[in-house]
Amino acid sequence: MGRMQESPTRASFPNDSRLNAAIAWAVEHLPFELTAISPVSGDASFRRYFRLHGPNSNQISGQESSLILMDSPFATEDNRTFIDIDNRLRQAGAHAPKVLACDLNHGFLLLEDLGDALYREVLHTNNADQCFPPLFQLLQTMATKVDCLGLPEYNRERLLTDLELFPNWYLGKHKNIQLSCEDWDIWEDLCTRLIASAQQQDQIFVHRDFHSCNLLDLGNAEVGVIDFQDAVRGPISYDLVSLLWDRYICWPRSRLEVWMEEFRQRIAPNVDSVAWVRYCDWMGLQRNLKIVGIFARLHYRDSKQDYLEMIPRFWSYLMDVLPRYDETRPMLELLERLECAP
Fold first, then answer.
1. Can you tell me the distance from the alpha carbon of 247 to that of 47, in angstroms, rounded to the nearest whole number?
2. Cα dihedral angle (232, 165, 323, 309), rounded to 10 degrees?
3. Most exposed among 23, 102, 274, 299, judged by the fewest C-beta atoms under 10 Å?
4. What is the mean pLDDT of residues 91-103?
């Protein structure tokens, strides 16, 4: 939007009283005069983000010239957890946005602006070898330095709840497929194996959505991290597979295995390399089955229309890994028999 005239505290969005209230609150805490507001791409939650511009937004300045207003309704979002995780990350040396002010009763937060250089736009096939080392360093910092005491455990119940999104929302709701008793046996066997593999791994701080839309290139090999409020204590391979099996860029298997080995040497050198690849593959299966189910749920339950278009990529990830292991081939055969590809 253009430059705001006169007082930005006035109601500038006649059909959005909540946003007007958030802006009025933010103005009381800004270290600069508010001159303009622009929306920032959101996520799959009910949160909204707006960039609040000051007079020097387009100039090099030693002072903050833009900040992020997060509208995060307390009825649907746990802002105390957001602040807690933010503090844990920052205390470990990770660059999460500093919380400058908050109103927990209304769900308004004022955050440091880490910019717009999302790895979604920065990372491509020709610069991956330069981009990945800082990302691996951030993963290593989170795994070894971020306090995960008291975080929710990504235990069997949570892992299974995530997996069940696939038959309930993708197969059942999207494809209108009802599994037979024999089909359920195959599905439950797969779930048991994937969960057991996840629980065998070291349990560390897990971001749970560590991918190119939640990572920012801050320059000088520094990486900003956002959308971390669902963090848990969980399997050591989880955030790595989130990064490697990305929603916007697909890497050849040979490159994935090089990166798996590089990260194993950094963070899990005592794990056999073959076992580590299996950990990553099976963790990827759990996560990608969950994602296919979540995207279907976002479409049907939350009326978020763009997510069905993303399912084919994650389906291709499933189809690449399922045939690699004898234990997972029955699920591949089931999906092929049901003809449930997107």
1. 21
2. -100
3. 274
4. 97
Asked whether residue 56 falls in the same domain as residue 176, the answer is no
In a domain, 127, yes or no: yes
Range of the domain at 61: 17-112
Determine phi and psi for 112, rounding to 5 degrees.
-55, 140
**Strands (DSSP E) along 54-120, which ranges?**
66-71, 99-103, 108-112
Chain segment 241-283, per-residue pLDDT in tens:
999 999 999 999 999 999 999 999 999 999 999 999 999 999 9
Q: Which has the minimum average pLDDT: 27-36, 38-47, 107-116, 208-217?
A: 38-47
pTM of the shown model: 0.90
- Diameter over CA atoms, the chain: 68
CB atoms within 10 A of CB 324: 15
What integer is the mean pLDDT of 33-57? 82
Rg (CA), the chain: 22
Amino acid at 223: V
- Per the structure, how many domains does the chain have? 2
Are 151 and 295 in the same domain? yes
Q: Are residues 88 and 142 in the same domain?
A: no
